[in-house]
Each structure stands twice: as C-alpha cells, then as structure tokens.
Design goal:
Number of strands: 4
Largest sheet: 4 strands, antiparallel
Mean pLDDT: 84
Radius of gyration: 20 Å
Distance between the termini: 24 Å
Number of helices: 4
C-alpha cells in the first residue's frame, strides 16, 4: 500500500479546523437570516417580542422557547466537536412569546417562530454545506 506524502497528510490534518470554522461562520449568518424572518413575521405591538428573538451559542434566556438545537459536524473523538446554535424567542419582558406562537384558550395563535424556521430551514442547511465544501476545497488548493 502506498504511503501518503507528508504534504498531503498536512493538508488532510487542516481540513477539520477549516471545516469547523466555515460551519461556525455559516451557522451564525444563517441563524441571523432565520431571526430576521421570525422578526418580520412576529406581532409588533410593544416591540418586546421582536427584540427577544435571537440566537446564541450558549444558553437561552429564562422565559424563552427555542426550536431544537441546530447542529453541524460530528463528534469523532478529538478530531472536531459538534457545533450547536440555538434560535429562541421570548425573555422576561416577552414571556408571552409562546402564547403568540401557539395561542391560548382566549387568544388565537399568531405563529411567527416555526413558520420563520420552516421558510429558512433549507437555506440554513445549504449555506453550511456550501461554505464547508468551499473551505475544504480552498484549504486543499492552498495547503
């Protein structure tokens, strides 16, 4: 079996780091696109609800709800970690976000969160996939 040249081995070792950084940047941009769409769809009476819609790499604020964590990458030992970004709505001032989304017995639903996610979900995933592929191609070309 032929051995890989040291140059090719060095290129291959760089790919996980390049892919993770590309995925991270694409996830941040795509999450902001989703947030913008949700804000566009959200009721705007006081502005608290619109201001509460955001994304984070960490924990969501108390009183908020989120779609599931959006992940990119795979855990393969120490090679690279899974990235998890969370898109959420609601906080201490806009605690009623879920009431707007799902309605109550006294109020009809005014969905903004899940329709915003559904409208942007395919583009979100495509942006990550395209950026990671482009970063890997660039690293291979310039490595």
């Amino acid at each position: 079996m032929a051995q890989l040249s040291p140059r090719i081995v060095a290129k291959l070792k760089r790919i996980p780091d390049v892919a993770v950084e590309a995925a991270r940047a694409a996830m941040e941009e795509a999450a902001q696109d989703v947030v913008d769409e949700m804000r566009r769809l959200a009721p705007k009476e006081s502005g608290d609800l619109v201001r509460s819609i955001s994304w984070t790499w960490g924990e969501v604020p108390p009183g908020s709800f989120m779609i599931d964590e959006i992940r990119s990458g795979k855990n393969q030992g120490d090679q690279y970690a899974t990235l998890r970004i969370k898109i959420y709505a609601g906080d201490k001032d806009a605690f009623y976000a879920r009431f707007q989304e799902f309605g109550t017995v006294d109020m009809p639903a005014h969905p903004f969160f899940f329709p915003g996610w559904k409208a942007k979900r395919a583009a979100f995933r495509k942006k990550i996939r395209d950026r990671v592929r482009a970063a890997i191609r660039e690293a291979w070309r310039n490595g």
